[in-house]
TrEMBL record:
Entries under InterPro entries matching the protein: AMP-bd_C, AMP-bd_C_sf, AMP-binding_CS, AMP-dep_synth/lig_dom, ANL_N_sf, ATP-dep_AMP-bd_enzyme
PROSITE patterns: AMP_BINDING
Limits of the AMP-binding enzyme C-terminal domain: 467-542
Superkingdom of the source species: Bacteria
Swiss-Prot/TrEMBL keywords: Ligase
Protein name: Long-chain acyl-CoA synthetase
Alphabetized GO MF terms: acid-thiol ligase activity
Amino acid sequence: MTTYADRPWLARYDEGVPADVEPEFPSALAMWRATAKAIPERPFLHYFHTTRTVGEVDADSDALAAGLVALGLAPGDRVAVYLQNVPQWAVVMLGVWKAGGIVVPVNPMLRERELQVILADSGASVLVALESLHPVALQVQPSTAVRTLVTTSELDPLGDDDVPGLLAGSSRQRPATALDLQDLIAQHEGDPPPAVPEPGPDDVAFFTYTSGTTGPPKGATNTHRNVVFNAMTYRDWIHLGPDDVILGVAPLFHITGLIGHLAVAALTGAPVVLGFRFDAGTVLELIERWHATFVVGAIPVYIALMEHPDAATRDLSSLTKVYSGGAPVAPAVVDAFERRVGPYIHNAYGLTETTSPSHVGPFGARAPVDPTSGALSVGVPVSNTVVRVVDDEGRDLPVGEVGEIVIAGPQVVPGYWNKPEETAHALPEGELRTGDVGFMDADGWFYLVDRKKDQINAGGYKIWPREVEDVLYGHPAVREAAVVGVPDEYRGETVKAVVSLKAGTELDPDELIAFARERMAAYKYPRIVEVVDELPKTVSGKILRRELR
Ligand code: AMP
């Protein structure tokens, strides 16, 4: 068992971090209310060139809460949020909590089939979608419990101001079959707060969906305790305060954006800079404009930023607290970023089920590189978190030995929504089996060297081969399919499909790529297709994905 005594870094690198941390607030909402009371006039959201203050966001979310309750939302009901990185995200999140509800983030890249699964599983009764996603939402709605469709536009927060280049193609649509978010807020401005109980630490704040090795996606139930605890982790381990400015490049539907942008902003009062979707040139401009100081995102973001021609001419000197998480980081990229842009990229590790980080490189400390594997350390376990490295029988392994990483701590979710079996399997006695394989060195730094799971990690986006294979099997020429991750310079890994064909059929790989592309989110479809006579199999006939890799 790894104990505090085994972790000399605690004193060495970060004496300011208390070893025992109890959440300071009973809920993420209480955390926000404290900020709203203390600094209502401060900026909270910068979106392109516009700004909303803490007080404005608080008032809008009050009105939205009243509106949601008037529409019939009851405590514990789920509201799905199908948006890009727009200011409305924060308003909806706070409004849902104020109405006693649970937020279900949905990746706006998901297509009909994928959206349907999440809506049906979560039982969401309200869906807040971008206007441009309204057709998808409308098509899926009849097979779900969604009673109310609310839409909003990425142009709304801009008012009558200039439209930034990135949104030049957007137009206002106001579909007649949905309520408009702005109208809903306006109608309930000044209403008394809904008479619902305040959320407590064990109430669920989010269902965050993660795919499974087999079967449909599972909703991890991040509680308010989980959220408050890891908002504090970001604040304390990265030394964030109200004078920081958070560059919101991680998607807000993912746990990194939810906690590393929105929750830590709600806790500290540091504003978040949003720019709809990631575009390197826009992000460089926004760093300069708003003097962003802190960023957490996946490594392709940093590659794209440093390779953009504007990186040499923009003033990026405010950006000093830089973190990467979600995908492996090559030490060479850290060096190149430091040389070309300035700041050192710290590594952090976590999962959806750990409500963002379980491990962090303490701010100011340079992570060691394992001489044998060349892996950059993912950090040290954060406060109050116990991490074990175990063998196949679940027995503790000594320092330096490679095994599965299992995590217990206040950021670990209690389980998956309505999935007792999966919960028992992944979280036996509340301890998370990560499926990641690695080791701890004598100083307490952790390294990942492999994965137990077949998951593909394309620059932080997780893809389960099974799901892609299921779609490929829908093509009339495909007899057998296996999907694997192959190295890719920018995304780290990309998706490759190896297929065999039915007798008498022919298949152009590009046709299969186009077939898959139509049926799944853009990050999932295979970029490479190879047609073979036979796929490698075990004696029992199981396809050997590992061999293909
Ligand atoms: P997600 O649930 O999308 O946050 O994905 C969690 C998975 O991302 C982990 O199980 C790891 O496989 C991977 N991951 C997260 N952080 C890192 C990191 N710093 N280095 C390498 N892989 C990471």
